[in-house]
C-alpha cells in the first residue's frame, strides 16, 4: 500500500545549464499530482558534463485506505480515466543559490516525468532507469528537458519507482466497487 521513489543520480549534457556559472548546487523535487512534494535533503555541486552526482535518496508515499484515502481516490481516478493528464510523478531539478548569495531564489531548471499509468499498463516497476530528454515515450522512459526550452535535452536523472503493487491493489478495489 505504498509507492517507493528513489532518486539515485543526475548527469547533465552540454547545455545552457552546464555553462551557466550562477547554477552551482542542484537538488531534485518529486511531486505526485497536488498531494505531496518531496525533495532530496541535500543540494549537491552541479556535475560537469559527462559526470554524475549521486543523491541516493529514497521516499515512500503511503496510499493505504485507512490513512491516505485522498491519494488512493486520486490513483483510482487516474486508472479509470485515461484522459486524465495528471498520471505522472513529476521530477524537478532545482538550482539552489550558494550560501553567500541567499538573496537569490531557487530556480527550476528542468523536468522529467514518470507515468504511473504506464507502470500499471506495462505491469513493470521502474528500477534504476535513466529518465532523460524530450517528450516522446519509450517504454517507461520519459525525458528530462530544459524548463525554458522543452525540446532541449539537458540531462539524465536515474530513478526507481516501485508502484505496481499499490496500483494493482487500487485497481482490484475499483473492480469491487
Automatic annotation (TrEMBL):
Listed GO biological process terms: non-motile cilium assembly; retinal rod cell development
Entry-linked Pfam families: RPGR1_C
GO terms of molecular function: thromboxane A2 receptor binding
Stored InterPro entries: C2_domain_sf (IPR035892), RPGRIP1_C (IPR041091), RPGRIP1_fam (IPR031139)
Domain RPGRIP1 C-terminal: 1-173
TM segment ranges: none
Lineage top rank: taxon: Eukaryota
GO cellular component, one term: photoreceptor connecting cilium
Name this protein carries in UniProt: FTM protein
Amino acid at each position: 500500500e505504498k509507492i517507493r521513489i528513489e532518486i539515485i543520480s543526475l548527469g547533465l549534457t552540454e547545455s545552457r545549464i552546464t555553462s551557466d556559472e550562477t547554477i552551482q548546487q542542484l537538488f531534485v523535487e518529486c511531486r505526485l499530482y497536488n498531494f505531496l512534494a518531496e525533495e532530496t535533503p541535500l543540494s549537491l555541486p552541479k556535475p560537469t558534463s559527462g559526470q554524475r552526482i549521486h543523491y541516493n535518496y529514497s521516499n515512500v508515499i503511503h496510499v493505504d485506505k485507512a490513512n491516505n484515502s485522498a491519494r488512493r481516490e486520486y490513483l483510482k481516478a487516474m486508472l479509470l480515466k485515461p484522459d486524465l493528464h495528471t498520471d505522472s510523478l513529476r521530477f524537478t531539478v532545482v538550482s539552489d543559490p550558494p550560501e553567500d548569495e541567499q538573496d537569490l531564489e531557487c530556480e527550476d531548471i528542468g523536468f522529467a516525468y514518470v507515468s504511473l499509468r504506464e507502470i500499471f499498463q506495462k505491469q513493470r516497476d521502474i528500477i534504476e532507469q535513466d529518465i532523460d530528454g524530450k517528450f516522446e515515450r519509450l517504454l517507461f522512459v520519459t525525458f528530462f528537458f530544459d524548463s525554458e526550452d522543452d525540446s532541449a535535452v539537458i540531462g539524465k536523472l536515474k530513478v526507481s519507482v516501485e508502484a505496481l503493487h499499490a496500483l494493482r491493489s487500487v485497481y482490484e478495489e475499483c473492480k469491487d466497487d
